[in-house]
Design a protein that fits this description.
The complex is a heterodimer.
Chain A lengths: L2 H21 L6 H6 L6 H12 L2 H14 L10 H10 L1 H7 L5 H8 L2 H34 L3 H49 L4 H10 L18 H18 L1 H8 L4 H32 L11 H10 L1 H27 L4 H26 L6 H12 L4 H37 L5 H24 L5 H25 L6 H19 L10 H25 L1
Chain B lengths: L2 H4 L31 H32 L2
The chains are: A mainly alpha, B mainly alpha.
């Protein structure tokens, strides 16, 4: 990496921190610290919503997924536009008008304190751990590529984020998100332009080569509950997932609570409804174009440089044999790709040559797994490796800064929302119900710092905590749809507190059951199962509760 | 210019009368239907149609991409 690229990265990090500190001026009370005095414009909130959802995993993992698996992942987002419209007329106006700090605060007004506390607690546990995972994913990649320690990789992203989030509050988070979103989109567009410029074939031939390997197959209309990405799971399961995420997860709810009015809050969510699918298509297109690029340029046998070095050193003979076969297979594939680009009739030979390369890669990944004792899945390394070796000076720095920006924007929003829920739903509710604004502000900043430290520690030890994080993430999927069910129940006048609380417990238990395979359904359907169970059970219990009341 | 707002026809609703402080009303308030009147329903339908139209066009483009380039 050239010095100029590091200067770009350093300039970006410095600017974000300085601007965040500048934004702290005028924040003297928790309404300003957590909700920007409910005075932010819709477009800033909308960009912040999109930046929060677009993490570093999207920049390096989803682009890599585009290279290996194509565009079909986009089906995951098919339910998002409908979910945003539904939220715009249901939860958004109620939560915004209720002038609450957290979504869970509303549940106490509608139901009772235990429903509020349970939902807030579930949010804190899952988001606290996932925040660590969000830092960990890019940190592991930076560590492998640049040879940094994991601790240093975590610190370079975590420390600036904690500083500007703690000092500046939601104002700093939102305005940093706006700049970070612009940086991310600019980096992605620039990369697409550079790849198209460097490809030895025209864009039409490039798409034809990608299409021949199935990478442009978007739609899978099969109705299979065990298949994760299908049109129906994306449309139905995705709608419930997006409603849960954008409507009940404090890290998202807090974004639209900062908007000036209900109308502006709705508009901010609609920005995602209009732009999320095209943006995600752009992300996946980068991966697809990188795949085509490597048809004409020898790709590495293993994309993870740390694994590559270890395998070279510890299984040299096997690696050299595989490397030689890989080079021959790649040469045959390049010739076949040239022929297929010139004549569509040659596509079957190209597909066969591509399968040959994939077969050698599969053997190499198995060898890497045997030598290192770690998962050798290297999807997350494809794009960083491509960027560092193939892109011009300057653009490399912009890409590294964009990956950091994507990670920081997600972490900042989560730290801010974790602190909000900790202070509002627990500290102010149960520990110190009355205190000065100055006291709450100090506690809020301390809570942000503590959650930041917790996330950095989790990220640093993510490798050893791997199974624990997976358990927590899986546990998180148990209640996501169920919490949506509680909010849906809140819209029904006949629903009672007992119904909501028992429904929530039964909903989570039901999702846990289908998660462990009785019957087995893929995770996008979990939210549908959870939400529907909570509503049905909640209404039944509520009807008994009303009869008790009547007596 | 506010392109998204222009595509969002839900009119501004006067929230001042319904707004209240965080602690000044502890009565359960069901999330009943603020947009349940005919005008609100009509605005929602218009918005739904516009958002869905954009999505259908996007999906159509993806479908054409699949049909054109996938054998």
């Amino acid at each position: 990496v050239h010095t100029l690229d590091w200067i770009i990265v350093a300039a970006y990090l410095s600017y974000v921190v300085i601007d965040g500190i500048r934004r702290s001026k005028g924040t003297h009370e928790i309404e300003g610290y957590f909700l920007a005095n409910r005075n932010l414009p819709w477009w800033a909130v909308g960009l912040s919503v999109m930046a929060t959802q677009l993490s570093a995993v999207t920049m390096i993992g989803t682009t890599g997924q585009g290279a290996t698996d194509g565009i079909r992942f986009i089906q995951f987002y098919f339910g998002l536009p409908l979910a945003m419209v539904i939220l715009g007329v249901t939860l958004v106006p109620f939560l915004h008008r209720a002038r609450v700090f957290t979504a869970y605060e509303y549940l106490e007004r509608r139901f009772d304190a235990k429903t509020r506390s349970l939902t807030a607690f579930l949010f804190l546990v899952s988001r606290g751990m996932s925040c660590g995972a969000i830092i960990s994913a890019p940190a592991v990649v930076f560590s492998a590529i640049f040879g940094w320690s994991i601790g240093w990789s975590v610190a370079i992203m975590g420390i600036p984020t904690v500083i500007y989030t703690m000092i500046g509050g939601v104002q700093a988070v939102t305005w940093a998100d706006v700049k970070q979103m612009v940086l991310i989109v600019a980096a992605m567009v620039a990369i697409v332009a550079v790849i198209l410029f460097q490809l030895p074939v025209d864009p039409d031939s490039a798409l034809r080569l990608a299409g021949a390997t199935g990478r442009l197959r978007t739609f899978d209309f099969s109705f299979n509950l065990n298949e994760t990405y299908t049109f129906w799971s994306g449309l139905i399961g995705g709608t419930f997932l997006m409603m849960s995420y954008f409507g009940t997860d404090q890290s998202q709810v807090q974004r639209f609570l900062t908007a000036k009015s209900v109308d502006e809050a709705r508009s901010s969510l609609l920005m995602s409804a209009y732009w999320k699918i095209p943006l995600q298509a752009l992300v996946l297109l980068i991966g697809i174009l990188v795949f085509v690029f490597y048809l004409f340029q020898a790709p590495p046998l293993l994309y993870n440089p740390a694994h590559e070095q270890r395998v070279r050193a510890e299984a040299a003979t096997e690696y050299q044999a595989l490397d030689a076969r890989h080079r021959e297979a790649v040469a045959r594939r390049e010739a076949a790709a040239q022929a297929a680009a010139a004549s569509p009739g040659a596509e079957p030979a190209f597909v066969a040559a591509n399968s040959e390369v994939q077969a050698v890669r599969t053997e190499a990944l198995a060898l890497a797994e045997r030598v290192t004792g770690q998962s050798s899945r290297d999807v997350n390394y494809i794009i960083p490796r491509f960027v560092l070796t193939m892109l011009p000076i300057g653009l490399v720095g912009i890409f590294i800064a964009a990956v950091m920006a994507a990670a920081m924007s997600s972490i900042a929003a989560e730290l801010n929302s974790l602190a909000t829920s900790s202070v509002i739903d627990f500290y102010r509710r149960w520990v110190r119900p009355t205190a000065t604004e100055r006291h709450y502000l100090t506690v809020s900043k301390a809570a942000t710092a503590l959650w930041g430290i917790f996330a950095c520690v989790v990220a640093t030890y993510a490798a050893t905590l791997g199974s624990l994080i997976e358990v927590v993430n899986r546990f998180g999927s148990f209640f996501y749809g169920s919490i949506l069910g509680v909010f849906l129940l809140a819209m029904v006048k006949k629903a009672r507190a007992a119904g909501a609380f028992i429904g929530l417990i039964v909903g989570m238990a039901t999702v846990a059951t289908v998660n462990f395979g009785r019957p087995s359904v893929s995770f996008l359907w979990h939210n549908v199962v959870g939400a529907v169970t909570v509503v049905v059970v909640g209404l039944i219990i509520s009807s008994f509760s009303r009869r008790e009341d009547a007596r | 210019m506010r392109p998204v707002a222009l595509l969002w026809p839900l009119a501004r609703v006067d929230t001042s009368a319904r707004s209240r402080g965080a602690d000044d009303d502890q009565q359960p308030e069901p999330m009943s239907t603020p947009e349940s009147n005919d005008a609100g329903r009509s605005r929602f339908q218009q918005t739904l149609i516009r958002v869905m139209t954009v999505q259908v066009v996007t999906l159509l483009l993806l479908w054409l991409l699949q049909v054109r380039y996938t054998g």
